[in-house]
Structures are given as C-alpha cells and as structure tokens.
Specification:
Helices cover 26% and strands 20% of the residues. It is an alpha/beta fold. It comes from Vigna mungo.
Length: 581
C-alpha cells in the first residue's frame, strides 16, 4: 500500500491524542464530604481563608491551610471524578476537544491566532494535560527565593499521591536511545529531577492508565475545616478602604450555576487572607475585575479603581512547541510524554505515540482538530464553519495506516518573548484577550531551530530506524507536518527548507503559559499583592518563566509550600502577640 504524506499527520494526531481504546475499569472516586455544588451554599458565609480557584495550586494550598484554619475553596468548574475523558489515559485529548459550555476545558484564542485552552474543573490543568511530572531545577528554586529543604519536602508530599514511574515501551525507548546516540547525554535514567541530558520523567497516570490530579491532594485536607464549592464563579474581590491605609481584601462575590449571588467574607483577624489561584488567565483577569490593574484600562470598562497597578496582565508568555510527525511501518504503543532530552541550548525534546484506533472512533481528531484549530494562526474572521468543515472532510476517508506513528517535539525554555492580557468584558465567564508574541525574541526562534535540528537527528538515528519508512526523507516529513490540513494557516512553500519558517508556521501551545501577576511586579516574594492588604496570588501567573520541562509539579509544590509558609507566618505572629501581652 502506497503511503502518501498528506494522509498521515492529521489522523495520527487524533489517534495519539484522542484514542478510542477500551477504557479501563472504574477508578475509585474519593468520598469528599466537604465538596458540594455552590447552589447549596448560604447567601453569606465566613472563613479564615478564601482560595479562589481549585486548580493545580489551589487544591494543595487549601488542603494545607485547612489543617489549622477554616478554608473556602471556590472552583468555577465541576468535579473531575466519574468523567472518563479526564481520568483515562486512552481518552487523552477528548476533554480538550470538547467545546461545550460545560466542558472541563475552556477554549481561548490568543491574539497571535494560536488556539489554546484553560481549565474549568477541580484539579485544573492537571486534569487535561499530557501528565508529565518533573521538578524544577535547584537553580530555579534559588532564584525564586524558596527554601530548598522545604521545596523538596513539598514535592515529596505531592508525589506520594499523584506521581508514578511510567512503563517505557518501544517508541519511547527508541526516542531515548536516539537522544543518547546523537549526544544528548548523560543517560540519567528515571528521575523527577531536572538534569541536563536524557531522562525518563514521572507521570500522573498510574499503571492502570488512570490520571491522578491536584484534586486528589484534597485527601490531605481536614474535612471538618474545608468547604469546596463547585460551579462557583467569583465575580469580584471585595475591598475595605479606610483613609490613609491600603485597600484591604475582606470578601468575595460569587455566583452559582443558577446565577444566584453569594458572598463570602474573611473572619475578622489580621492574618486572614484571600488567595487567588485562578491561573495565568484567571488571576490577572479577576484582579482587574476587582479594580486592581491599569487605571485607564479599568476605567474604559467602567470598573472602579481600587489600586492603579499597570503591571497586572503584563509579562504573559507561552512556551511554543513544534513537532514532526513520523509515520511508523509497525504498530506503536499509546504513550504521552515520558522521555525528555534536556539540551544545553535551551530546548526540550519529547515524544508521544499512538496505535491505529481509527475503527469505530468518533472523527473529532482530538485537541488538534480543525474544530478547535490547535495550530491555527489564521485571522479569526477566516475561521469559518465552512473552512473547518472542509478541513475535517479531507480526513474522513483516510487509510487505516495513516493513524500509525508518533510525534517528536521540541519546546523551548523560558521563553524570552512575552505579551500582555486585557479584559474584553466585565463577565468573568468570558475569556480575556491575551497576546503571547511567539518568537518575537530571536533567541526563542534560534532555540526552536536548534531543537528541530535535534529532532531531525533523532529521526535519522540508528536507534529510531525501526519506526521510520526508509523512503521518506526529512523534507517529506517536514512538508507533511507543515502542509497538513490540521490547521488553517496560510502555507509557505519554503517551510521544509527553512526551519525558521517551519517554527513560525507550525507553532503550537503546550499549555505552559504563565505570567500576568509576576513576582517583583504584581506580587512580592511572599506572593502578597503589592499595594493592597490581605490578598495573595499563588499560581503560575506569578512565574517569570516556566519551571523545568513541565510546570505542573512545581505549581502543585508551590501550593503546598506556600500553605506551609502561611501557616508558619501566622503561628509566629500569634506567638509574638502572646509574648507582648
């Protein structure tokens, strides 16, 4: 059977990322007696701490604070439990391709034209991602001002519940051996640590193929001291303003799924706080909706200014990812990210693969579907239903062999390029406008080129030879990726000749976007919002650059770490007050 380039890329993405493989047996669902729908919440309530956002940072943070104090955790989405599109590895990508109003993933389109996704579910991005678990480097922790011992203890606290060693099979083994063959050394074996060379990292999927998320960390919570409300959308943070003093956060207004308004207030104590953990889009958005942001921008939306902070929403970055699809002459395992090559030039090499699951599967093509336009940078007005339907139709009759193979991808560190976030409306359910400025800095583009050159060397390595058709040169593979109907980008004839153009034409997100409430600009090193009292931001929006090869381990660690720091600070303050008395 002749294998044509154009038949491979699109369905292979679907196969790998939205497989219809048989689902595993039911996963055990935790019995969280403290979790309920926000419709059951009282109109007014009081807590020592209010955490906004039950995501990757918010869950471990709330669980930790509940050991000593009453905590309200507000999550705008629902529960991940009982949803096989979240919990089963074989269904990876299904949640991301779900664009319904109740989807755990809320699609957004950056002003760059790359379509992206933000979490709308308890557990946050850990419910949607490819599951790779790896720590940040010790240097990252030092630069953040974190205590190394406490950081390691916090990682271990997380890892006892959600991290596992993957079972590395043939495709991932070939990528690993290829990396070593071309000089991405040493071989560091299996480790959670961020070490230069080639390693096998952790995964949040267990050996039965079940995903474990940040929501699982709520098992550490004190059930008598924590309340978790689902489908609770916070509309604004309330501030008390007295003459001559900083505005003080003292409550929140949220609405349940029926639109009913509720208010939650802090208990009257100088150490009680509201903590924003709504993510890189949600946290700066909610600060602005609450009157903390650039004065002129807030006034343009008729928002009363609580504190003029022009740096809210600035420094938005997303690590660009580029991939090359490699059709395989033999079946390969379903695998997400397991092996990583940490290069010396600022690019991370990873891979994913999938068998042929075309038969009987819903033809939605997962997170790279033209219906969600994962790679699309075409202007929004040209993203018509007709164009999407045409791209989808092009895949309908493709041969079974087109679904066999995998991807080798590169993601750059940093990045250096950054953009900004602004409000579109005053509705917290609506996405803000965000610009990432992919490859604006030439260093980012050069790292992409070097990373793709490394991917090319792996493809041509002896170790990878069993998974590559000998009659398909690299130029053909590049053209297959660049010219596939997976996106609505204008095509460039030189994409396979110019890696710079290939980087720009095939840029994707790997959902590691961050910034908007950065340390030193919007928050201090204790993550307290500058210019106001009793308010912190603890999540990826505070990062100046992305930690390690995947940020989720560090975001979960940060929730635990800062929870302990807050408890310690409050204990010391109480002891000092008692001494003075």
């Amino acid at each position: 059977m002749a294998l044509c380039c154009s038949t491979f890329f699109f369905p292979a993405l679907f196969s790998i990322l939205f497989s219809a493989a048989a689902l595993c047996a039911s996963q055990k669902v935790p019995n969280y007696t403290f979790m309920r729908n926000a419709t059951a919440a009282p109109d007014i309530s009081y807590y020592d701490y209010i955490v906004i956002g039950g995501g990757t940072a918010g869950c471990p943070l709330a669980a930790t604070l509940s050991q000593n104090y009453s905590v309200l955790l507000l999550e705008r989405g629902g529960s991940p439990y009982g949803n096989p599109n979240i919990t089963n590895l074989a269904a990876f990508g299904a949640a991301l391709s779900d664009t319904s109003p109740t989807s755990p993933a809320q699609r957004f389109i950056s002003e760059d034209g790359v379509i992206n996704s933000r979490a709308r579910v308890l557990g946050g991005g850990s419910c949607l991602n490819a599951g790779f678990y790896t720590r940040a480097s010790p240097q990252y922790a030092r630069e953040a001002g974190w205590d190394g011992g406490a950081v390691n203890e916090s990682y271990e606290w997380v890892e006892k519940v959600v991290a596992f060693e993957p079972e590395v099979k043939q495709w991932q083994s070939a990528v690993r051996e290829g990396l070593l063959e071309i000089g991405v050394v040493p071989n560091n074996g299996f480790t959670y640590d961020h070490i230069g060379g080639t390693k096998v990292g952790g995964t949040i999927f267990d050996h039965q193929g079940f995903r474990h998320t940040a929501a699982d960390l709520l098992q550490y919570a004190n059930p008598s001291a924590i309340t978790v409300l689902l489908h609770a959308t916070v509309h604004r943070i309330l501030f008390r303003v007295k003459d001559g003093s900083k505005p003080m956060a003292h409550g929140v207004v949220f609405r349940d799924s029926l639109g009913r308004k509720h208010k939650a207030y802090l208990n009257r104590h100088p150490k009680s706080e509201i903590i924003l953990s709504a993510g890189a889009l949600g946290s700066p958005q909610l600060l602005m909706l609450s009157g903390v942001g650039p004065r002129q921008h807030l006034r343009a939306h008729n928002i009363s200014v609580t504190f003029d902070q022009p740096l809210v929403g600035q420094g938005m970055s997303d690590n660009p990812m580029n991939a090359i699809f490699v059709p395989s002459p033999q079946p390969v395992e379903i695998s997400l990210i397991e092996v990583v090559g940490i290069t010396s030039f600022g690019s991370y090499i990873e891979a994913a693969s999938g068998e042929n699951f075309a038969g009987g599967s819903p033809r939605d093509y997962g997170m790279f579907s033209p219906k969600i336009g994962q790679l699309s940078r075409v202007p929004p007005k040209e993203r018509t239903p007709e164009a999407i339907a045409k791209a989808t139709e092009a895949m309908q009759g493709l041969e079974q062999a087109a679904f066999r193979g995998g991807f080798i991808l590169e993601k750059i560190m940093g990045p250096i390029s950054s953009g900004h976030l602004e409000l579109r409306t005053r509705d917290p359910n609506e996405n803000p406008s965000v610009t990432f400025n992919y490859f604006q800095d030439p260093v980012d583009l050069e790292r992409c080129v070097q990373g793709l050159s490394t991917v090319e060397k792996i493809i041509e390595s002896k170790a990878f030879a069993p998974f590559r058709y000998p009659n398909m040169p690299l130029a053909m593979l590049l053209n297959m990726t660049a010219n596939s109907p997976v996106n609505l980008l204008p095509k460039h004839s030189n994409s396979s000749l110019s890696l710079q153009q290939f980087c720009r034409d095939t840029v994707m997100t790997i959902w590691h976007y961050h910034g908007g409430c950065q340390v030193g600009k919007v928050v201090d090193r204790d993550y307290k919002v500058l210019g106001v009292d009793a308010l912190r931001v603890i999540d990826g929006s505070t990062f100046n650059y992305s930690p390690g090869t995947n940020p989720q381990a560090t975001v979960m660690m940060l929730g635990r770490y800062m929870g302990l720091q807050i408890l310690t600070q409050r204990l010391r303050a109480t002891a000092a007050d008692q001494t003075q008395q």
